[in-house]
Structure formats: structure tokens, C-alpha cells
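Researcher: Can you fold this with zinc ion in place?
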Amino acid sequence: MKNNCVFCAIAAGEIPSFKVFEDENIFAFLDINPFSKGHVLVIPKEHSANLIETSDETLSSLMVAVKKVALGVKKALGCAGFNILQNNGEAAGQTVMHIHFHIVPRYSSGPIIFENGKCEMSELEELAAKIRSSI
Ligand code: AMP
Ligand code: ZN
């Protein structure tokens, strides 16, 4: 695995993921342990560990893709809002050292709809297809 990095392997198609969007530089897929229904991760294909290590050029295309994918999530799932999260370093809760933005759909102002890890695989595939077709 390149860089021994699970997200590089996902972007290269070497390990499976529930893909929602891909272009030349960017890859987006469902989080396997979602905070809410339709939780997506958006990554650059080029490896960098965090915000500071990522080139301005890559960051620019990454943010444009985050907006595009968030719009697709909103259209597909009708969420009322969404959180964008991006953790830098172990101390901040980063567990995968390949920069990624979380898009976490919110369906009401209350708590997040289901607890971490409560999503069935079959539901993830259905969600990914729905989001893919809305981007
Ligand atoms: P962070 O805490 O910001 O580093 O978030 C890493 C996220 O990656 C977590 O929410 C994990 O559930 C998610 N994750 C880790 N491995 C995979 C994978 N193979 N496919 C999809 N999501 C993953
Ligand atoms: Zn990587």
C-alpha cells in the first residue's frame, strides 16, 4: 500500500469504498463509521498528512469539491444542514493521517440521528448511489 496509507489505497481503488464522487484530483466516499446518515469524507488523491502539509493548489480544489459534494448530499438526502469537520494531528482526534474533510449531514437541530457504527452495509451502498446521482 502506497505510503502505508488507507486513504491512498481507497483513492487508487486498491481497497473498496462507497464512492460518491471522483475527478482527476479528488475522491469522496462514505465514512464507514458514520456520525449520521450520509457522512462523507472528501480527500485529495495526492497524499499529504494534514492541512499544513497540503499545497494551496490542492486545498483550493479540495474545498471546491467539498462544496460540490455537500450540495449533492443536501439534494440527495434533504438534510436541514451539515457540519464540515477537519482534524489535524492525534491530539485533535485525527486517526487517518491523510488529509480529509468530513461532511456530516444534520437532519434537525437535535442530536445526530444514529450513533457511530449503527449503519448497515446495504444502506451505505444505497446512500452512496443516491448521493452519486445528485452530484
Ligand atoms: P479522523 O478522526 O478525522 O482522522 O477521521 C477518520 C475517519 O475515517 C473516521 O471517521 C473513520 O470512520 C473513517 N475511516 C477509516 N477507515 C475507513 C475506510 N476504510 N473507509 C471509510 N471510512 C474510513
Ligand atoms: Zn495517503
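Model: Folded with zinc ion in place. The domain at 2-134 is CATH 3.30.428.10 (HIT family, subunit A).
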